[in-house]
Specification:
The strands form four sheets. This protein has a five-stranded antiparallel beta sheet with strand order 14-13-12-15-16, with helices on both faces. A four-stranded parallel beta sheet has the order 2-1-6-7. It has a four-stranded antiparallel beta sheet with strand order 8-11-9-10, with helices on one face. With about 325 residues, it is α+β, with helices and mostly antiparallel strands. Helix 1 packs across helix 8. The chain folds into three domains: about 1-105, no CATH class; about 120-135 and about 200-295, D-amino Acid Aminotransferase, Chain A, domain 1; about 140-200, Dna Ligase, domain 1 (2-Layer Sandwich), CATH 3.30.1490. Helix content is about 30%, strand content about 25%.
C-alpha cells in the first residue's frame, strides 16, 4: 500500500493519485489527533501499528511499502482543549507520537522525514552543492549590519540580491535587488539574518524536478522586468523543455544522494555565457507550473516510482 502524507485538496497530489493503480491512502497531519486515530502495540508478540482514518477505515502501517511525504499542515488539536498549558502538552505528545510513527516505517520514502528536514536548510544546500562541484553565487548570511554593508559595497548596489530563508504566507518576501536606498536601512539586518547573494544575470531560469533519479528540466525565459525573480512573471514567460548538461546532471544527482532525497525541485540559472549556477532545492517543490507547459510527465513519474517501490516490498 502507498501512504501519501499531504493534503487531500492539493492539485499536485490529485494529479499523482490519478495515475496510481495500487491501493493508496492520503493522510493529512492536520487531522491528528482530533480526527485521525493512532494505535501502536509492542510486546513479545511483535509490533503493530496503524491509523484509524477519519472515513472510519483502518490503515495497517506495516503494509505500507512506499510513502510520499509532501507538505505537512499543523497538527489539529481538539477545540475542547481551552487553556494554553493543556494545548501545549497535547501538541507535544501528539508530535512525539507522530514522529515516532514516521521513523518506524521501514519502507521507501519520498522523502525520508529527517532528510527532508535537513534538506530544507539553505545553508546546508549551498555547502553540499559546492562540495559536489556545482557553481553557486557568492553568498553572505548575516545579522551583522557591518558585514552586510561590506558585502554589498564590495560587489556594488544593484549587483546583490537579498532573499528570505522561507517565504511564509503571513510575511511574503520576493527576492529583490539591493538598491542604494537599502543601505540607508541596513541596520535593520540586526533584527533577523538575511541571505545576500551576488546577482546572477540570467539567459534562462531552470526548474529541474528530480524523481528517484529521473530529471525533468523546464527552461523559463522571462521578460526583463522579471529577471531577479521569475515567479512573478510566470504568466508571460516562455516555458520549454531543457536538457541539463551531463556534468551538471551528474553533480546534481550527487547532491540529491548526499541529501538523501529522492524528490526535489531544483532551481538553476543559465548565464549569458552558458554557465549553470545552482540556486536552491525545494524538497517538496511544485512542478505542475512547469510540466503542464512542457508536457513532461512528472506526476506519472512520481506515481510510477511509488508503485515500483511498493511492489518491491510487497
Amino acid at each position: 500500500m502507498i501512504l501519501i502524507v499531504s493534503f487531500t485538496d492539493n492539485e499536485h497530489v490529485r494529479r499523482v493519485t490519478r495515475n496510481l493503480t495500487r491501493p493508496f491512502t492520503v493522510v493529512d497531519t492536520a487531522w491528528f489527533p482530533s480526527r485521525l486515530g493512532l494505535t501502536v502495540k509492542a510486546g513479545a508478540a511483535g509490533f503493530e501499528f496503524g491509523f484509524r482514518h477519519p472515513d472510519g477505515n483502518d490503515v495497517d502501517l506495516l503494509a505500507v511499502g512506499a510513502v510520499w511525504y509532501r507538505r505537512l499542515r499543523p497538527l489539529g488539536l481538539d477545540p475542547a482543549l481551552a487553556d494554553g498549558v493543556s494545548r501545549l502538552f497535547a501538541w507535544s505528545e501528539s508530535n512525539e507520537a507522530l514522529l515516532g510513527t514516521w521513523y518506524s516505517l521501514e519502507c521507501f520514502w519520498m522523502n525520508p522525514p529527517l532528510a527532508d528536514e535537513a534538506a530544507q536548510r539553505k545553508l546546508r544546500q549551498l555547502q553540499l552543492a559546492q562540495r559536489v562541484g556545482l557553481n553557486i553565487p557568492e553568498t553572505l548570511v548575516t545579522n551583522c549590519p557591518e558585514e552586510a554593508r561590506r558585502f554589498i559595497e564590495a560587489h556594488g548596489p544593484g549587483r546583490v540580491i537579498r532573499k528570505a530563508f522561507r517565504n511564509i504566507a503571513e510575511a511574503p518576501r520576493e527576492t529583490a535587488l539591493v538598491e542604494p536606498v537599502d543601505l540607508e536601512r541596513i541596520d535593520t539586518v540586526r533584527f533577523a539574518p538575511v541571505i545576500f547573494q551576488t546577482f546572477v544575470p540570467a539567459d534562462l531560469d531552470l526548474r529541474t524536478t528530480v524523481v528517484d533519479g529521473e530529471m525533468f528540466t523546464a527552461a523559463i525565459r522571462s521578460a526583463p522586468e522579471h529577471q531577479v525573480d521569475y515567479r512573478s512573471g510566470l504568466g508571460s514567460a516562455t516555458v520549454t523543455p531543457y536538457r541539463l548538461p551531463d556534468d551538471v546532471a551528474a553533480r546534481l544527482q550527487q547532491l540529491m544522494d548526499l541529501m538523501g532525497l529522492t524528490f526535489g525541485a531544483v532551481d538553476f540559472r543559465v548565464t549569458p555565457e552558458g554557465g549553470h549556477v545552482f540556486l536552491e532545492v525545494n524538497p517538496a517543490g511544485e512542478y505542475l507550473f512547469a510540466c503542464d507547459r512542457t508536457g513532461q510527465p512528472v506526476p506519472e513519474a512520481i506515481a510510477a516510482c511509488l508503485e515500483r517501490h511498493d511492489r518491491e516490498r510487497s
